[in-house]
Design brief:
Shape: elongated
Number of strands: 0
Distance between the termini: 19 Å
Radius of gyration: 14 Å
Structural class: mainly alpha
Number of helices: 5
Mean pLDDT: 95
Number of domains: 1
Helix content: over 70%
Largest sheet: none
Order of helices and strands: HHHHH
């Protein structure tokens, strides 16, 4: 992997864009100037975890549904961090296409 404009290896910067969900996604999306790989993962983090956060807020009164959303959050969080560290441009259905389009 090449270095990103953040000074880190691209796979490390991409992994870190998922660490705190949409928050680190925004940080890395704004900081990264060159790497399309890092910008893609940052945007995918923003969309994925932003949407899951909004859904949790909307359905806060249905604990079972919030629990399901939380499980999905954790599974995706781990999967996406692993794939980013491996250097894979792992695209989630629909969200991955949006992230690719909006990060260009």
């Amino acid at each position: 992997m090449a270095k990103s404009s953040t000074g880190m290896e691209e796979n490390v910067a991409a992994l870190l864009s998922y660490v705190l969900g949409w928050v680190t996604g925004i940080i890395f999306f704004l900081l990264e100037k060159e790497s399309k790989f890092v910008k893609f993962h940052a945007m995918q983090s923003i969309i994925t975890f932003g949407a899951l956060t909004v859904l949790s807020i909307i359905f806060f009164w249905l604990p079972v549904l919030v629990w399901v959303i939380d499980v999905i959050f954790i599974v995706l969080w781990i999967l996406l961090m692993i794939k980013a560290y491996q250097g894979a441009k792992f695209k989630l259905p629909v969200i991955g296409d949006l992230a690719e389009k909006w990060s260009a």
